């Protein structure tokens, strides 16, 4: 089976486990000493990744889809880029929202456990990371001595 197809099968299985809210099965795809880099910070180890998955479910993430964009093999490791899409439903209001972005992963082939994610970085699309009201600002000199803030484009 081509690497891209094999990795897509792994991500599809993870997504099915996520949909089933089976945190233990989701976390089994991560190496014991993995690093997971998120906008919330760097997590180390499977226990912290498990806590993150529980938080995601509490936040109302109900569905996750992933699609492999690129994969390269280097020895027993894969370097992969995939797109992700999360459907979120606010538990209090029932309103839904979609968050999506790109992930970069380093995956190793373990002879006993199959493919395990050693490192992963998730990056939300720019408009989600910095909605217009929360965009970073910079100050510029105006025509007077005062400075005004303008939103970075």
Query: What do the pLDDT scores average to?
Result: 83
What profile does the largest beta sheet have?
Answer: 6 strands, mixed
Categorize the overall geometry.
globular
Q: SSE string, helix = H, strand = E? A: HHEEHEEEEHEE
Structural class: alpha+beta
Distance between the termini: 44 Å
What share of residues are in beta strands? over 45%
State Rg: 19 Å
Strand tally, please? Answer: 8
Q: What are the segments in which pLDDT stays under 50 over at least 5 consecutive residues?
A: 134-153
Record the strand order, biggest sheet.
2-1-6-5-4-3
Number of distinct helices: 4
Fraction of residues in helix: 25-40%
Structure description:
With 153 residues, the chain is of the alpha+beta class. The chain has helices at 3-19, 23-27, 46-58, 126-129; strands at 30-38, 41-44, 61-74, 77-89, 96-110, 114-124, 137-141, 147-151. A six-stranded mixed beta sheet has the order 2-1-6-5-4-3. A hairpin with a 6-residue loop joins strand 4 and strand 5.
């Amino acid at each position: 089976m081509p690497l891209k197809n094999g990795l897509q099968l792994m991500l599809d299985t993870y997504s099915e486990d996520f949909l089933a809210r089976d945190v233990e099965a989701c976390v089994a795809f991560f190496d014991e000493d993995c690093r997971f880099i998120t906008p919330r910070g760097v997590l180390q180890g499977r226990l912290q990744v498990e806590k993150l998955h529980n938080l995601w479910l509490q936040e109302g993430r109900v569905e996750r889809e992933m699609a492999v964009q690129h994969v390269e093999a280097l020895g027993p490791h894969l370097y992969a880029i995939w797109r992700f899409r999360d459907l979120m439903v606010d538990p209090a209001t029932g309103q839904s929202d979609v968050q999506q972005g790109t992930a970069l992963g380093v995956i190793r082939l373990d002879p006993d456990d199959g493919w395990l994610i050693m490192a992963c970085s998730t990056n939300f699309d720019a408009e989600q990371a910095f909605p217009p009201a929360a965009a970073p600002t910079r100050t510029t000199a105006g025509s007077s001595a005062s400075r005004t803030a303008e939103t970075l484009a």
